[in-house]
Each structure stands twice: as structure tokens, then as C-alpha cells.
Design a protein that fits this description.
- The protein is mainly alpha-helical.
- It has one domain.
- Helix content is 58%, strand content 7%.
- The protein is built from four helices and two strands, in the order αββααα.
- The chain has a two-stranded antiparallel sheet with strand order 1-2.
- Helix 1 runs antiparallel to helix 4, helix 2 packs antiparallel against helix 3 and helix 3 packs antiparallel against helix 4.
- The radius of gyration is 17 Å and the shape is elongated.
- The two termini are 20 Å apart.
């Protein structure tokens, strides 16, 4: 397992963890504030794509020969693009009805963003790694 897959694994875990805390909040006078987390709207796509990346990283460990059909650079590119696009769309949606908050006020949004940066970095590493030399 190379550095790229480790980064994708860690980034996917961080992204999923970031879906649970607060992402947005609308304070209201004389009533409870409205708020939400990353498991609303396009956040579900982030969750599913992150789970797919975790599965793709882990699948080679489940076989005897250490190879998996889904552990390919194209898989990581597609899932990373899907989750990053869903994240940006969700940020756009939130920005339409309330202002984006600082990390202390909306930690989930920022944690997921950091996780997706790690995923993008890991995907770039996977794309630039050299294929293993077969010595059989």
C-alpha cells in the first residue's frame, strides 16, 4: 500500500467523521436556531463516495494475491471527483440560505473539507505512482 492509498484512506475517514458535526446554523430570535449537518442533501453522495474509496483501498487485503478489480486509479479519480463536486455543491447550497461559518461554529464543514483535500492529494499520488515490477 503506497502513500497515495494511505492518504485516501485517512482522508475518507476524516470526511465521514466531518459529516456528523454541525455544518450550518441559522440563529433565530425567541426560537431555537435551525441547523444541519453533512448528512443532508448532497452530503449523502460524499458519504457513499467515501465508503467506496475505503472499500477500494481495503479490498486488496481480502484476497490471497493482493489484487482487486476496484483498486484502480480510475476508481479513485471518479469517487474523489464525485465527493468533491458534491461537497462544493453543498457549500453552494448552504451559501444561498445562510452565511458560511468559521471553523469553530461549523466544524463539520471544515473537517470534511480537510478530508477531501487529503483524498485529492492521495488520488494525485496514486495517479503518479509507478506500477509495481512483476518478478515471477
Amino acid at each position: 500500500m503506497g502513500r497515495g492509498r494511505v492518504l485516501i484512506f485517512l482522508g475518507s475517514i476524516v470526511s465521514v467523521i466531518g459529516l456528523f458535526p454541525l455544518w450550518w446554523m441559522i440563529p433565530r430570535t425567541n426560537e431555537a436556531a435551525l441547523s444541519g449537518n453533512g448528512l443532508q442533501g448532497a452530503g449523502i453522495i460524499i458519504f457513499l463516495a467515501s465508503m467506496g474509496m475505503l472499500a477500494a483501498v481495503v479490498m486488496p487485503f481480502t484476497t490471497r494475491d493482493g489484487d482487486s478489480a476496484i483498486d484502480r486509479p480510475l476508481t479513485y479519480v471518479i469517487l474523489a471527483l464525485l465527493s468533491i463536486t458534491a461537497f462544493l455543491y453543498r457549500v453552494y447550497e448552504i451559501g444561498n440560505f445562510t452565511s458560511l461559518r468559521l471553523p469553530m461554529e461549523a466544524p463539520g464543514l471544515w473537517i470534511t473539507g480537510i478530508g477531501l483535500v487529503l483524498v485529492a492529494w492521495g488520488t494525485a499520488e496514486v495517479l503518479t505512482e509507478k506500477p509495481p515490477i512483476y518478478r515471477g
